[in-house]
C-alpha cells in the first residue's frame, strides 16, 4: 500500500474517483405507492390484530365459502368421516348394552327367540359399516334394524337428520364456490392503460371495457372513484380518501349496454378531482382511480362485480383508443388484438381549469397539429416524388434500350445539325 501511494499521486486518485461518480449518476427513484386495487381486481389489504375471531364462526357458511379449495375439500371429507365414526361408536354402544357382542348369544339365538338390536353387528368394524349404510342409504341387506331396541330407533332418526344437514351445508358450499360471482368477472376485461384527450371540446379521462362472453351482463353500471391521501384543514390525515366522480353517459342512469367493448368517458370539469392537474403534474400525483363494473349475469341471475385501477404512470396524456369494431358482411366484428392500442392526438398539456379560463389554448393546439400534419404530408409527398425520379433515372442507366438515339437533320445548304430527343 505504501509503494502504491508513492507511485500514484493522491490528487490523481481523487480525480479518478470523481470522474467515475460523474459517469454513473445516482438516480433516486420516487418510492412507489402501494396500490389499493390490483389490476386483476383484488384488494391489496391485509387485516391484522383481529381479536374477535368468533365472529367468523357465527357466519359459518360464508366462512366455508371464502376458504380455499384445499381447505374446503378437507372439511368436506372430515365432516362425513367424523359423523360416520361418531354414529358407529353409538351403534357399537347400543349393541354392547343390549348384549349383542356376547359370544354366548350366538348359541342361544337359534334355540330361543332372542332378537338383537342390529343384526350382524359383532364388532366396531361392522358398526362402522352399518353407520355408513344408514347415512348414505346404501343398504346391502346383511345388517338391518329390528324393533327390539327403541334407543336404536332414536339413533337411526338422529343420524338421518344429521346426515341431511351435513349434505345440505357441504353441497351448498361447494355449489356456491363453483358459481361465485367473481368467476364471471374473469371475462370482463379493462384496458391496461387509460388516456386523457379532448372530446367535444373538453378534456376527458377515458378507458375501455369489454365482455368476452356472448351471454350479456344485465343492468351493467360503471362507477369511478379516486383514492388519494388527503389532509383536512384540522390536520387529520386520511390515508384512503375516496371521492366519487361522474361518468359521462347520454342516458340519465349509469347503466350501459355492454354488447361490445365501450369507451367509458369522464369529463374533467369543476366537479372532478383532476380539474387542476396538468400533464406535467400528473406524474407527480399520488392518486389511484378505481373502476368498478357491476351487473347481473344473464344465465345465472347472480350479481357480479369486476374491478381495476389506474395509477398516474398508467394514464397516457394526449392519446386516444383506436377503433376495434368493424362491419364485415353484415356482422359487427370485434378485434380484441387492438383492445388496448392507442394513438397520439392533439391535446393541450395544461389543466382543465386553464383550458376553461383560456379557450384559445385549445384552438392554438389544434392549429399547430393541423400545420404539423400538413408539413408531414408535404414531406412525405416530396420524398415519394424524389424516390420516383431516382428510380426512373436508375432504370435508364441500367437499361440501354431506354436511351433515345441521336437524330441528324440535313439542311438545304448541306450542313448537318444533330438534335437529341
Automatic annotation (TrEMBL):
Q: What are the GO cellular component annotations?
A: monoatomic ion channel complex; plasma membrane
Organism of origin: Chunga burmeisteri (Black-legged seriema)
Which molecular-function annotations from GO does this UniProt entry contain? Answer: ATP-activated inward rectifier potassium channel activity
State the compartments where it is located. Answer: Membrane
**Cross-referenced InterPro entries:** Ig_E-set, IRK_C, K_chnl_inward-rec_Kir, K_chnl_inward-rec_Kir6.1, K_chnl_inward-rec_Kir_cyto, Kir_TM
For this chain, the family text in UniProt reads: Belongs to the inward rectifier-type potassium channel (TC 1.A.2.1) family.
Substrates-to-products reaction catalysed:
K(+)(in) = K(+)(out)
Q: What is the recorded name of this protein?
A: KCNJ8 protein
Output the Gene3D superfamilies linked to this UniProt entry: 1.10.287.70, G protein-activated inward rectifier potassium channel 1
Q: Which residues form the Potassium channel inwardly rectifying transmembrane domain?
A: 37-180
Q: Where is the Inward rectifier potassium channel C-terminal domain?
A: 188-358
Region (Disordered) location: 372-397
Q: Where are the transmembrane segments?
A: 73-94, 151-175
Q: Where is this site: Role in the control of polyamine-mediated channel gating and in the blocking by intracellular magnesium?
A: 167
Amino acid at each position: 500500500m505504501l509503494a502504491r501511494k508513492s507511485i500514484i499521486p493522491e490528487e490523481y486518485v481523487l480525480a479518478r474517483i470523481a470522474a467515475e461518480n460523474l459517469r454513473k449518476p445516482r438516480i433516486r427513484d420516487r418510492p412507489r405507492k402501494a396500490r389499493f386495487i390490483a389490476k386483476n381486481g383484488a384488494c391489496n389489504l391485509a387485516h391484522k390484530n383481529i381479536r374477535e375471531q368468533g365472529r367468523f364462526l357465527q357466519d359459518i357458511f360464508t366462512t366455508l365459502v371464502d376458504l380455499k379449495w384445499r381447505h374446503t375439500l378437507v372439511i368436506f371429507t372430515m365432516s362425513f368421516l367424523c359423523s360416520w365414526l361418531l354414529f358407529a361408536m353409538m351403534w357399537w354402544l347400543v349393541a354392547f348394552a343390549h348384549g349383542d357382542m356376547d359370544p354366548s348369544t350366538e348359541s342361544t339365538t337359534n334355540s330361543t327367540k332372542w332378537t338383537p338390536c342390529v343384526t350382524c353387528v359383532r364388532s366396531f368394524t361392522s358398526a362402522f359399516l352399518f353407520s355408513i349404510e344408514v347415512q348414505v342409504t346404501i343398504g346391502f341387506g346383511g345388517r338391518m334394524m329390528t324393533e327390539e331396541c327403541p334407543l336404536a330407533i332414536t339413533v337411526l332418526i338422529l343420524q338421518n337428520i344429521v346426515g341431511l344437514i351435513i349434505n345440505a351445508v357441504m353441497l351448498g358450499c361447494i355449489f356456491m364456490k363453483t358459481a361465485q360471482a367473481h368467476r364471471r368477472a374473469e371475462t370482463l376485461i379493462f384496458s391496461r392503460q387509460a388516456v386523457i384527450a379532448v372530446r367535444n371540446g373538453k378534456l376527458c379521462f377515458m378507458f375501455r371495457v369489454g365482455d368476452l362472453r356472448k351471454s350479456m351482463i344485465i343492468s351493467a353500471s360503471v362507477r369511478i372513484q379516486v383514492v388519494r391521501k388527503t389532509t383536512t384543514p384540522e390536520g387529520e390525515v386520511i390515508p384512503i380518501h375516496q371521492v366519487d366522480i361522474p361518468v359521462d353517459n347520454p342516458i340519465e342512469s349509469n347503466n350501459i349496454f355492454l354488447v361490445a367493448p365501450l369507451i367509458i368517458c369522464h369529463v374533467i370539469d369543476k366537479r372532478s378531482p383532476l380539474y387542476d392537474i396538468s400533464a406535467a403534474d400528473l406524474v407527480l400525483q399520488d392518486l389511484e382511480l378505481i373502476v368498478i363494473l357491476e351487473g347481473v349475469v344473464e344465465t345465472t341471475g347472480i350479481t357480479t362485480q369486476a374491478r381495476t385501477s389506474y395509477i398516474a404512470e398508467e394514464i397516457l396524456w394526449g392519446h386516444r383508443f383506436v377503433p376495434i369494431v368493424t362491419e364485415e358482411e353484415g356482422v359487427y366484428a370485434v378485434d380484441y388484438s387492438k383492445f388496448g392500442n392507442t394513438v397520439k392526438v392533439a391535446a393541450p398539456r395544461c389543466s382543465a381549469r386553464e383550458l376553461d379560463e383560456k379557450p384559445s389554448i385549445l384552438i392554438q393546439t389544434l392549429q399547430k397539429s393541423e400545420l404539423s400534419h400538413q408539413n408531414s404530408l408535404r414531406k412525405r409527398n416530396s420524398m415519394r416524388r424524389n424516390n420516383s425520379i431516382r428510380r426512373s433515372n436508375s432504370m435508364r442507366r441500367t437499361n440501354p434500350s431506354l436511351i433515345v438515339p441521336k437524330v441528324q437533320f440535313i439542311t438545304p445548304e448541306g450542313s448537318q445539325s444533330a438534335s437529341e430527343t
